[in-house]
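User: quick one
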Amino acid sequence: MSEPELRDELKAPVEPLLPIEKKLIVGSLATGIVLLVLLGLVNYWLGAG
Amino acid sequence: MTDAAIGFAASARGRWSEDTLAVVLGGAILVAGLASYFGVDVLGWTVTTAVWSDPGKALAAISKNYAALGGLGALLATFAALLVVLTAGAAALGERPARFAGAFTIVFVIAYAAWFVGAQAHLAAVTPADQAKFGVSWSLRLTNEGGYIVALLAGLAIANFLPRFAGWLKEAIRPELYIKIAIVILGAFVAVTAAGRLTFASSLLLRGVAAIVEAYLIYWAVVYYVARKWFGFSREWAAPLASGISICGVAAAIAVGGAIRARPQVPVLVSSLVVVFAVIEVLLLPFLAQTFLSHEPLVAAAWMGLAVKTDGAAVAAGGIAESLVLAQNAAEGVKYQAGWMLGVTATVKVFIDIFIGVWAFILAYVWTNYINVQPNAGKARLGEIWARMPKFIIGFLTAFAVALILALTASPANTAKLSAAIGEANAFRVIFFVLTFFSIGVLSDFRKLWREGLGKLAAVYFVSLFGFVIWVGLLISWLFFAGVKPPLVQ
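Assistant: Done. Structure below.
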């Protein structure tokens, strides 16, 4: 891909977020935050380290 | 990895992959090192470089059994061994052996010269006692591992001021291969280091899991959203970009690019940005860690593993951070054991790497079933998980397991012998680190950032990395590692 082609491509119309993408983003974040809190609690309770 | 380097790597015709070669070479070096544990000193001729003010006293063979070689003899023996073994490896990868041998000779000479310069007392002496010992009135206190920075700067100078020379060297500029060999060796070093504190080793696993959650579920989602919503990138660009910034740079961008069926150029361009930004991080974050986290060494170490992308740059940053933070503490009279910080950085990074295949599979499933639905298109297969997992991780884990078993079953008298044996292999790990630093520098053409068209990609990277990834990485590292200290030198 040449640089002019890349430049044109990056100016292309924006693709709207699909519902599945929103689910992927929100689901990942929610799962990640819950898991981090749980791991943090385990880390705290075990006094690991 | 630059476009050229990626293209070159992809065109290799050999039956071996870089990962296989890394596992074989790293494993062979470890086996040869462990031979001394069983009474046969195979690697004792390996060269080491001490802090020096008299250059004639800088180099030596690592084992007294080979003292007769002298420093120069040990250096030549080490170079010859690496040249033969790596040239054979390059042939196994499908490259031209003679071309590789010529380029590697130059790469080794420049990289080791940089390492040698970095060990000069004005750069490396740490404590006032050291300065007095070497007869210098001032020092940058970088320890002899400041040579990594010198090697990186040498590589950067070549990449940005001598691009034709950089192109000539490209066949031996393989930072991913060098760091993967080093990481396999590091597996044994980490195990022997951690064997004395098994509670630490087990708690490190918990923190490794936290790193996986952070990289895949938090970073990826936020960066993907930023790229799509704020910067208007298409899905084809946003997914590899989010993977490159969030997970593990080049490897993740390429794996995810393949998984979502992106055009090959997309992950290649993303990868070239990853390398450039990783160099900026290597030059910046370890010094920030020294300034603000010197009393929390393992927070600093985990931060390097979470924030710096690409295996080579992350572990390299961990190495520099360790030398700087330990030097800072030594100057204040607190002497932590070496190896713990590097072990934490490498373990965090390896844990993140393990799931690249799983994440690529998940995205392939989502893309083929919900986004790019095509009636005749192949669906994501479970075999993709194995196909896309970086195999050198198996080498790291095997080396870790074998060395841990040996360390836990060794008698107190044999423990020192085991440490010395792993130490001989570890001398090669240091050399591969130096080669990695130099190679990363040679691949980092900063002019790419100014090229029209890449600016918007670089903007996403900059906003995500410096606005989010680095600071969340610091927060999580603090939550999981604050108060955990490496053991003190007895």
